[in-house]
Amino acid sequence: MKKLLSLFCAIAFMSGCSAFDSNGGLFGGSECESREARDFMSNAEDRVFFAFDSSALSNNAIEALDTQVEWLKDNEKIDVIVQGYCDERGTREYNLALGERRANAVKQYLISQGIAASRISTISYGKERPAVLGSNEAAWAQNRRAITVVKAN
């Protein structure tokens, strides 16, 4: 088992890609992380959280989004994708629509602060990609989110 893990790590290292997804989960994706994506993650808060059944931005969310606005104004050639997520409650269809409203709330705020709409795309994952597993308020609160990621060129 140790040899297999070592082999996997060596392959991931040699390919220059991370075996971890943006939420820190192993095997979450195979996308390479660009220098711009690493810089964004270091200098801006990439996620905001929402209340139950809501797409309204809280004061904390606005503070986080202001760090994104600042970074995006300093990096005018970079485009982003805002991903909307929900907790496990509700139907798949309802949560896809709510995730879309959350992603669009973030997009509209960024636009209102001077970021060009053409630089921002959105996608909803609904309840399909939880950040935290569990059927309790602590888990649900972490899953009701929107994450802004640098778009791969």
Description:
- This protein has helices at 2-15, 35-43, 59-74, 92-112, 137-143, and strands at 47-49, 80-85, 120-126, 145-150.
- Helices cover 44% and strands 14% of the residues.
- By secondary structure, the protein is an alpha+beta fold.
- The protein contains 5 helices and 4 strands; from the N terminus they run H-H-E-H-E-H-E-H-E.
- The protein has a 4-stranded mixed β-sheet.
Number of strands: 4
Determine the oligomeric state from the structure: single chain
Q: Strand fraction band? A: 5-15%
Mean pLDDT: 85
> Helix fraction?
40-55%
SS element count, helices: 5
Over all CA atoms, what is the radius of gyration?
16 Å
Strand order of the largest sheet: 1-4-2-3
List low-confidence stretches.
2-31
Gross morphology: globular
Question: Main traits of this protein?
Answer:
153 residues, alpha+beta, 4-stranded mixed sheet, 44% helix
In short:
By secondary structure, the protein is of the alpha+beta class. It contains 5 helices and 4 strands; from the N terminus they run H-H-E-H-E-H-E-H-E.
Topology:
Elements: H1 2-15, H2 35-43, E1 47-49, H3 59-74, E2 80-85, H4 92-112, E3 120-126, H5 137-143, E4 145-150
